[in-house]
Design brief:
Elements (H helix, E strand, L loop, with lengths): L1 H48 L5 H13 L3 H9 L4 H10 L4 H39 L1
Length: about 140
């Protein structure tokens, strides 16, 4: 009896520890998500002010991350026809392993960088064309 009681006590303590570890993981995940949302919002605001960064994209990424922890925002994003598919893809992102998440983040970073370079070249081309037209007058 005494052995069973101590074994039962050990199992209860083990379950309690597992629950505590899960709570710490969830809290840490929320803190990291909040920090990421702040970073993406800051990048989005800078991107709106500077034409090199895609500001709206960073603001949208911040909204997707925030929607994971704020259900009313998730409802709004899922009801919008433009963001509905992105919400489905972001739900699938959580199911990826670390290698898949790393690959997706790498390719998204490459795409964002190339889009920014393309936009900067387009802006520079417009500036040079307007300067050339002023010089011809």
């Amino acid at each position: 009896m005494a052995v069973l009681r101590t074994l039962s006590d050990l199992q209860k303590k083990g379950v309690q520890r597992v629950i505590m570890v899960e709570q710490v993981k969830q809290s840490l995940g929320k803190v990291i998500s909040f920090a990421l949302v702040l970073c993406f919002v800051a990048l989005g605001v800078v991107g709106i002010l500077l034409p090199i960064l895609p500001g709206l994209l960073f603001l949208f990424i911040a909204a997707l991350i925030a929607a994971r922890h704020f259900p009313p925002l998730a409802f709004v994003l899922k009801s919008n026809r433009y963001s509905r598919s992105a919400m489905r893809y972001s739900d699938g992102f959580m199911d990826l392993d670390w290698w898949g998440k790393t690959r997706l983040a790498f390719w998204a970073t490459i795409k964002i960088t190339l889009d920014g370079i393309d936009y900067a070249i387009d802006v520079l081309g417009r500036v040079f064309n307007s300067l050339r037209k002023r010089g011809e007058r």
